Every structure is written in C-alpha cells, then in structure tokens.
Amino acid sequence: MPEPDFIAVRNHLVDDVLGWWLTHGPDEKYGGVLTCWDNAGTSLVSSDKYTWSQGRWIWLTARIAAAARRGVLDVDPEQFLGLARSTATFVRDHAVLPDGTTAYVTDRAGTPRDTGQGVSVSVFADLFAGLGFAGLAQHDPEWGDAAERILLAAAERIHAGTYRSEPYPVPAGHASFALPMILLGVGEQVHRATGSERSLEVVRNAVTAIETTFVRGIEVMEMPSSAEDLLLTRHRAPGHTLEALWFLHHAADLAPGTLAADPERLGDLALHALDLDWDDEYGGLFRFVDREGGAPTGRRTDASYEALVVDTWDTKLWWPHAEAIYTTVLLAKAIGRHDLAHWHQKLYDYTMDTFPAGPGKEWIQIRRRDGRPLEATVALPVKDPFHIARSFLLLAELLYDDERTEDR
Fold it and tell me: Could you give the 3-state DSSP secondary structure of residue 136?
C-alpha cells in the first residue's frame, strides 16, 4: 500500500498554510485571530471575530504546540501555545456570556454584536469555544472545567430541543446529523483533557444517536425525517460523513462495541460516501448530492436550508477535501484497505492540484464545479483557519508515528 509523503505533508502545512496564517491571522493588539479575509486571502473585509473560528484557532494552535514538542513539526511550540492562550483569554473574557453560552460574533476589541436575532444564536459557536478550551487544557489543565461546562450545557440544550444553530437552523420535522457529530468531536477532546465521566457519557450518547438515527446500511443521512420524498430528507452531505468517520474512529476506545469501534464498517461508509459524491466530469467532491447521486431532488418546501442545498450543491469546497484526505488514509491504515488507499491518492492529487494558492499561501477555499475560484460565503464570512491545518496536522502526526514505529 503506497504511503503518503510525510515531508510533503509537513512542509505544506508549515511553509504554506501555517506560514500564511502566522503572517495574516494573529491580532497582537486585542488577542484572537482575524479571519474575515476574502477567498484569495488578499483583503481583510472585516475585523469582526466569530467565536466559531476563534475556538477552532485555540484548539489548532494548542495542538500544533503539542506536535512541535513531540518533534512532528519544526516550529516554535511556545509561539503557538502563546497564540492559543491569548485567544482563549479573549474568548473567555469577551465571548462567554453570563449564562454560559457564547456570543456568536464580537467586534475586534471583543464587544459582542447582536446579529439581529440575538447575541447567542449558535450551539456550534458554543461548542467550538469548548473545543478550544479542551485543546488548551491538555497544556494548562485549569481550562478543562470551562470546556466541560460548555459541553454539558450544550448537550443539555440539544437534548431538550432548546438549542439554536445559526448559520444553519434545522428545519422543522428534521433531525440534524451535525448535532451528534459535533457533540462527539468536542466531547472526545474534552474527555481526553479531563477524563471526566460526564464527558464520556456525552461521547457515548452521541455515538448511539449517530448509529441509531442517521446510519442506514452503508449510508449516512444528513437530515432524516418521516417524509422520505422531501428534498432535505433525500439529500446527503458526504463531506460531513467523511469528517464524522474519523471522529468515530478516534473515539473507538471510548465506545467499545459500537460503530466507532468497527473500522471495517466505517470503511464501508467512507467508500459509499466517496462513490456517491465524486464528480466524474471535473473531479473532486460535491458539496451536496441526492441519495442516489447527482443534483439533490425531491419535494420542495420553503426551508431556507433547502435553497442552500439546491443553489450550492455542485460547488467544490476546501473542507470536505481536506477531511477526506485524512479519513481515507486513517481508515486504510487501520484495516489494510487498498481501495481506501487508492481514494486517498486520488483525493490528494485532485486537492493539491485545485485548492492551494501557491508557495507561502493558504488555499483558495471555495471553487466552482470546474475548479475556478468563487467569491462566496460558506457558513461564516471568513477564511476559516481550521479544516486544512487540522487535517494536515493529523495526517503528519499519523505518518510521523508510523515512521517511528517502523524504526524501532
């Protein structure tokens, strides 16, 4: 089975992706990271700070510091840990509200903004703040309590149905795969940092919800409902599926006897998602597809999310490709599947030919179906500093550990 090139992965991460962000992202005056860049990364269109991205940046920089200390990356761990700490302090002092939720967005100095629908409007923003605190807690344990409080409060609101989920409100009558998925991903990290029983319970409940509500045979449903003919019920988001599969695999030891601990089944789910989502004409992964492939079809309603699916289904986005690169090699190594290794190489070749903006730069993250750049907003009006760096960091860690094992 051909191996990905550790040096190429590490160099692209350090020299290009992280190199660009270190130059353009950190806000030395107020703390946090500036993310509202245009798709090309040439113009800062706003100095607003979305908590969603601030929390992700905390986790990323903390994890990079840990990887540097282990020798995976040749960067200064103290520089990245300093960025994690200053951003966590910014989020704690400005975005975390008295009720324990978080402001969706603040201005550059940290004053929360009312979005027109309120200040705290997204359980995703809350949980990404919790993720960031959990990442920092693996260096500074005192952040663990804050991470767990956010996780448990968010899980309770999701269970009670009192959550809000901007920028993607869940349409009435539909379940949302994104909710147990984010509880799994954040819960696993909180548990690694704290070892708490309550975070472990969140992880196991999320795995159960995924397995019983969203997985049907070899496919993962994005928004199931009782009406099988609805477009939203029929549509799939394979990039989401592929990201969730590595969440599940990473949590295998926390949920024995479940889907998370069955890598062969995870591999089958990955292969189905890839086969369904691949664009045979131009290459790459679509944003959304119908359950039978191609453009989403089905009975329409007036849900705003439905319009998003229909209008953007054939765009090519940075994050599904970055996530799929890591998931395919992770599962290929776990179960010795040559078909997944083949998909990894196919995805890697397409992605590196399509998205990177050049030496010393990040990626042009949003593309048309044929690969041309598209200036558009996806979820938040930001150039997000998370998916690319996280996937290449996890891939570098995986390859580094393999090399060390072989050298013994």
Answer: helix
Evaluated on CA atoms 81, 85, 90, 96, the torsion sign reads positive
Helices (H), ranges, 313-386: 318-335, 338-354
Contact 399, 4 (CB under 8 A): yes
pTM over 0.85: yes
Question: Are 165 and 124 a contacting pair, CB within 8 Å?
Answer: yes
CA distances from 230 to 23, 39, 225, 349 (A): 46, 33, 8, 35
Q: Write the DSSP string, 78-110.
A: HHHHHHHHHHHHHIIIIIB-TTS-B-SEE-TTS
What CA–CA distance (Å, rounded) separates 88 from 172?
35
State the pLDDT at residue 40: 87
What CA–CA distance (Å, rounded) separates 130 from 387?
17
List CB contacts of 193: < 8 A, sequence separation 6 or more.
134, 135, 137, 138, 141, 143, 144, 147
Q: Report the alpha-carbon distance of residue 41 to residue 21 in Å, rounded.
A: 10
The top-level CATH class assigned to 6-407 is mainly alpha
Closest to 242 measured CA to CA, from 219, 261, 216: 219
Rounded distance between C-alpha atoms, residue 293 and residue 308, angstroms: 17
Q: In which region does residue 173 sit, left (phi positive, over 0), alpha (psi from -120 to 50) or beta (all else)?
A: left
Give every CB contact of residue 372 below 8 A, 6+ residues apart in sequence.
none
Positions of the chain with pLDDT under 50: none
Name the residue type at position 56. R
Helix (H, G, I), strand (E, B) or coil at 362: coil
**DSSP characters for 188-232?**
HHHHHHH--HHHHHHHHHHHHHIIIIIEETTEE-SS--S-TTBHH
How far are the Cα atoms of 6, 193, 263, 296 from residue 287, in angstroms, in the given order? Answer: 28, 33, 25, 11
Contacts of 317 (CB under 8 A, 6+ apart): 239, 287, 365, 366, 367, 378
